[in-house]
Amino acid sequence: MTEVEGTDDITSNEKFRGPGLVRYGPSHIKSFCENNKVTKIFRAHEMVMDGYAKHYSQDLWTIFSAANYGGNNNNDGAMVIIDQEGTISFKCIHPVENPH
Q1: What integer pLDDT is reported at residue 58 of this predicted model?
Q2: CB 77, CB 49: distance < 8 Å
Q3: Distances, alpha carbon 99 to alpha carbons 50, 89, 93, 96, in Å
Q4: What percent of the chain lies above the pLDDT cut of 90?
Q5: pLDDT (tens digit, 9 = 90+) per residue, 9-41?
Q6: Per-residue b/e over 2-39, b at no fewer than 16 CB within 10 Å?
Q7: What is the mean pLDDT of residues 64-73?
Q8: How far is CA 85 from CA 26, 39, 57, 81, 88, in A?
Q9: Helix (H, G, I), strand (E, B) or coil at 41
Q10: Angle, CA of 18, 24 and 25, to the nearest 5°
Q11: Mean pLDDT of the 6-11 span
Q12: Which of 25, 34, 47, 95 would suit a FRET pair with 60, their CA atoms being 20 to 30 Å apart?
């Protein structure tokens, strides 16, 4: 299994943190996008309070759709919407109060 960790760009004097850890930063995101001819990366599976968050620039986004994750986080969920012209927008899903 590999753990992927976002970070600032790695300098040559940083210590290696062990096998199975892959670190990335702004230059890695830019290089990946250029090499793969994409303009954005959308990732999921990490809760963010507003349902979505940008990282480094607007090339890398986290999307999290579960509002009020775990029943006690009071976070928004979100969906990304990309129209036919490629315009990107976000639809927030606000938590609702549990009636029980």
Answers
A1: 78
A2: no
A3: 23, 31, 18, 9
A4: 50
A5: 444 444 455 566 667 788 888 898 999 999 899
A6: eeeebeeeeeeeeeeeeeeeebbebebbeeebeeeeee
A7: 93
A8: 26, 14, 21, 11, 9
A9: strand
A10: 135
A11: 48
A12: 95
Cα separation, 31 vs 87, in Å, equals 22
Tokens of 80: 């990304």
Query: Do 95 and 76 contact (CB within 8 A), yes or no?
Result: yes
Alpha carbon distance 90, 100 (integer Å)? 30
Contact 76, 93 (CB under 8 A): yes
Residues 71, 75, 76, 80: is their CA dihedral positive or negative?
A: negative
User: Could you tell me the two tokens for 29?
Assistant: 């995101």
Locus of tokens 């968050």:
53
pTM of this prediction?
0.72
